[in-house]
Amino acid sequence: MDGKKIFICDDDAGIIDVLKLILESTDAEIIAESRSARAFERLIKEKPDVLIVDLWMPEVSGEQLIHKVRSHVELQETYIICISASYEGEKIATDAGADVFLAKPFDMNAILSLV
Q1: Which residues form the Response regulatory domain (predicted)?
Q2: Of residues 94, 81, 26, the one with CA closest to residue 54
């Protein structure tokens, strides 16, 4: 993962901390944003290789953010992993354009293998 960027967007600081801890071993640059309303602007600036996004967030939902990323020409190649505790999350995430859906609580090895 040398030189790669992973962007995490989740309104739960605990989830961000856990993901950072898990992903430290990848040698990727980890960028985190807990306010979804600020995420899209930062995504355009950072142009990450991978976006890990929660589905249910205040301000801008993960579904809305995924749609915006997929419709922006500079971000279309971003690999999107959507995480959620929602029962219907997988359908919502894949319909929005996520590459993969992981149910919370997620397995650490599943995250690492996807990244």
Answers
A1: 5-115
A2: 81
